[in-house]
């Protein structure tokens, strides 16, 4: 869920790239999958020029982009995820999920290398890799196009889900800042926010943001947002540092906190956590844009280690700081002082700009398909109308489910689990099934995909039940208030 659009980069790379092949045969499964091979056995990766070439991104630039692609709103919900799973089980589960996520990213890159060489293409997107992987098997080749469509479907669901979460995040945080402004002080020592009577429903704040976001997505060329995106990145980075510092400085006695959460709440943890870890969409574009793509595995392992440590650190520290009072976003628990109000507003600004970047992915998939049947003179009005409609849909869904933790858990369970856990192991089997995959590799792939499927089913079921339960409670309370 990051600030860089993987689909955008992959499309541009696919249009402009070139690759020089120097090997006369495809890489074997051993050379493509074994991390212990010598440099000479990686000729298929090092002796051709990827799209990035000499003008591509350096190691440091790629690392920064990878970090941006994995650190977003999901990070702020991890303290609540730790509450759902427990003080000990939560961090251990985040560590395990980080290891599996890195492994699946590595699988995707290796399968893409193998298939791009086999197909003679300079670069493959995630959807193309899935399509060509299915073409590689006689029993799936007839329906290979559905592999790409499946990836694109979950990519659309994921990105629009991010946009829904952004609406909820903006509404809840701005509502809190506005309603506590008269009681805001310069004293930031207290952990408690001021309890006030609500003046407006958070859904009304979402509606207030709707026209501004529509105007934002009318900017069809993302180059015009580069400067604002850079400012947003600094704002969000500074906000995360201050939030982490406050959490670490105010850790409470953990004796009353459960080490293991309720089993019924663990699917909610899974959905929130996998939502945070879902940065697999930027992996292939970033690898393709590197000057030296043979070093990309080092970038992934080092970068995702930092991401995992940050997730564990903020998730654990946030829960230790606020305990059972932790909100859907840790920003909602920050003290009622001007410094942390500024932190919330800066993060809201970053989320507002990020909306356009995340929105670009589904827009680039859906709008061209619809515009193929529109006359030339009506294409611009139709384009703007489609963008407006998609934004209204995300706002409507956010209003229907105005609970940030449930939106994140639902998106994570439904789509992120497929993209990050279920599909990469399946792609490995499809790509290398005729290269003698060992039994333990097949078992490992089956286990990882099975975990993703169980998380998908259980997370979706529990989240939907919780959505229905909270909606009923909210309706009952509103009816009682109206009657009184």
Automatic annotation (TrEMBL):
Q: Name one GO molecular function term.
A: L-alanine transmembrane transporter activity
Does the keyword DNA-binding feature in the UniProt annotation? no
**Membrane topology classification:** Multi-pass membrane protein
Annotated Amino acid transporter transmembrane domain residues: 57-464
Which GO CC terms are listed, alphabetically? vacuolar membrane
Q: Which Pfam families match?
A: Aa_trans
Keyword terms, alphabetized: Membrane, Transmembrane, Transmembrane helix
Domain of life where this protein originates? Eukaryota
Location relative to the cell = Membrane
Q: Principal place where this protein is found?
A: membrane
Which InterPro entries does the protein's record reference? AA_transpt_TM (IPR013057)
Ranges of compositional bias, category Polar residues? 31-45
Transmembrane portions of the chain: 84-109, 150-169, 202-219, 226-248, 268-286, 298-318, 338-363, 384-401, 407-427, 439-462
Q: Where is region (Disordered) located?
A: 16-45
Keyword match Membrane: yes
Q: What is this protein called?
A: Amino acid transporter transmembrane domain-containing protein
Please give the organism.
Albula goreensis
């Amino acid at each position: 869920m990051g600030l860089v659009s993987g689909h955008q980069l992959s499309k541009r790379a696919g249009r402009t790239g070139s690759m020089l092949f120097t090997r006369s045969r495809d890489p074997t499964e051993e050379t493509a999958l074994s991390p212990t091979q010598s440099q000479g056995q990686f000729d298929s990766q090092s002796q051709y020029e990827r799209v990035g070439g000499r003008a591509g991104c350096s190691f440091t630039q790629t690392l920064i982009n990878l970090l941006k692609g994995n650190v977003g709103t999901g990070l702020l919900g991890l303290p609540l995820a730790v509450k759902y799973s427990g003080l000990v089980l939560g961090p251990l589960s985040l560590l395990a999920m980080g290891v599996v996520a890195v492994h699946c990213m590595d699988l995707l890159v290796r399968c893409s290398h193998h298939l791009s060489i086999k197909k003679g293409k300079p670069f493959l997107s995630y959807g193309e890799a899935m399509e060509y992987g299915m073409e590689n098997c006689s029993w799936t080749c007839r329906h290979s196009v559905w592999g790409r469509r499946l990836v694109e479907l979950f990519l659309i669901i994921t990105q629009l889900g991010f946009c829904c979460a952004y609406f909820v995040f903006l509404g809840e945080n701005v509502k809190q800042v506005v309603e506590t402004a008269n009681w805001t002080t310069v004293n930031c020592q207290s952990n408690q926010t001021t309890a006030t009577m609500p003046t407006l429903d958070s859904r009304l704040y979402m509606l207030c943001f709707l026209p501004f976001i529509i105007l934002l997505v009318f900017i069809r060329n993302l180059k015009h947002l580069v400067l604002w995106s850079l400012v947003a990145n600094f704002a969000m980075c500074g906000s995360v540092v201050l939030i982490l510092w406050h959490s670490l400085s105010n850790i409470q006695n953990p004796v009353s906190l459960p080490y293991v959460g309720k089993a019924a709440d663990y699917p909610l943890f899974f959905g929130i956590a996998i939502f945070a870890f879902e940065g697999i969409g930027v992996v292939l574009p970033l690898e393709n844009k590197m000057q030296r793509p043979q070093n990309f595995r080092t970038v992934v392992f080092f970068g995702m280690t930092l991401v995992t440590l940050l997730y564990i650190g903020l998730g654990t520290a946030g829960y230790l700081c606020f305990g059972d009072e932790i909100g859907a976003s840790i920003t909602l628990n920050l003290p009622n002082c001007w410094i942390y109000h500024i932190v919330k507003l800066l993060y809201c600004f970053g989320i507002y700009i990020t909306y356009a970047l995340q929105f670009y992915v589904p827009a680039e998939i859906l709008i061209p398909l619809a515009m193929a049947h529109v006359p030339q003179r009506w294409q611009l009005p139709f384009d703007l109308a489609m963008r407006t409609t998609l934004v209204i849909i995300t706002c409507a869904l956010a209003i229907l489910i105005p609970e940030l933790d449930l939106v994140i858990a639902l998106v994570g369970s439904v789509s992120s689990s497929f993209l990050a856990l279920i599909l990469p192991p399946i792609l490995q089997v499809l790509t290398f099934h005729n290269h003698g995959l060992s039994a333990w590799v097949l078992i490992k792939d089956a286990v990882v995909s099975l975990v993703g499927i169980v998380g998908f089913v259980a997370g979706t079921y529990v989240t939907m039940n919780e959505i229905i339960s909270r909606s009923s409670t909210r309706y009952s309370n509103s009816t009682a208030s109206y009657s009184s």
